[in-house]
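User:
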Amino acid sequence: MKFYNWLIKYRLYIGLVLLVAGVLLNVTVSGFWPVFPLYLVGVVLIAGHFFFGPLRLIQVHMEEGNMDEAEKIVNSIQFPNLLYKPIRSVYYTLKGNLAMMKQDFEGAEKNMKKGLDLGMPMKEAEGASLLQMGMLALQKNDMKGGESYIRQALRKGLPDKENQAAAYLQMCSIMMNKREFRAAKDFFRKAKAAKPTTPQIIDQIKQIEKYISRIPG
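Assistant: Predicted structure:
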């Protein structure tokens, strides 16, 4: 695994070295066919660098919580339009997530829209991106847009109970603002039924529970 990560990190340089070595051997020592394997491997490594990118390395750093290194790798991708389409979608989604962590909501929205427009490789990933778009819309007090995105996220499916609970709580708040109290209570029950473990979400549930039973509907 470490070798594979190392290869991803340095494959562009290795590919270039192999091509240069192939040309030199081709010209000075032998003909084309004896050095053809060097050309082939070099081209494959260079193509892999531009078509697939270093997203695996980004995933490793994000799982370890090393966001600075993850951002460095994302920023090292100079030609994102050359990435294979599903990978390009993930690339823009990652850029959106990193922008959200820095509270750059405009940049987050721009990149997440690009990712969604390209199509996500998994429905659950698309649902998570739609949920984040909904959160961004609510940050801008765009209640209609936020509700639309979150409803789409729930229809597409969300990857875990934490995201589901967060989506239901947001819908609960939206319904209370619209004074649709019966719908608000229904979404609140669904949020509790998801049994989230994230402290922030649990705290939100406790806060809403204090007064939701007293509202009509």
